[in-house]
Request: fold
Amino acid sequence: MLIVKKFGGTSVANKERIFHVAKRCAEEYKKGNDVVVVLSAMGKYTDELVDMARDINENPSEREMDMLFTIGEQMSVALMAMAFHKLGLPAVSLNAFQVKMHTTSVHGNAKITNIETERIRAELAQKNIVIVTGFQGIDENNDYTTLGRGGSDTTAVALAAALQADACEIYTDVDGVYTADPRKVPTAKKLDEISYDDMLRMALNGAEVLHSRCVELAKKCNIPLVVRSSMNDKEGTIVRGEALVV
Ligand code: ASP
Ligand code: MG
Reply:
């Protein structure tokens, strides 16, 4: 099986969590699966980059913002590869340029147009765990672009589609999709499954659990998503075509 696993910023916020994620992915790899890991920038690092930019220039160029943003995800993937190596596992990190993740050239809100799969396939064939930067792409001039805040979810789904993955799992800091944000509404209930359309409605209404474009793409490519916590083994929520009628 080929499995795409995406981990958000909180899940890779420090050394302990990076090793926790690496160990979790190692279990999957040791079962004989091909594992592609998509990462966000560590913790609130993207926000810190925004602050740094504004400190220099209150109205920074969109192109230069994207150039700056890409270092966040690049830092995560390189450190994660080092963690795998420390655990004695073969792994390689790749950024959007190395993968050739093509997007439109709308800086800060680019859309993925095509992902080349040769490099990733070659690394998987060498039995490497492949760790890919989320959120970033390249345009036709080979300039870096980004997909909009929270865009790493969309990278994961686009990669799962391009690689015809058997599963796409989005790991986050909550146990799944809730009827409301569990961090703000204590009575919110976790859903076992939800349809693409209901999930999209929630994402467009500001639910932060998934990037709206990721849900649109999953629907278009009919890729079931599993949203679950990186901190525990609970089942999470399945996002798919039609929620089962019971
Ligand atoms: N690091 C980027 C952000 O904070 C992308 C992501 O986390 O998905 O928006
Ligand atoms: Mg997110």
In short: The chain has a mean pLDDT of 95. The helical segments are 15-30, 45-56, 62-86, 96-99, 118-125, 152-162, 196-204, 212-221. The longest strand covers residues 2-7. DSSP finds eight helices and twelve strands in the chain.
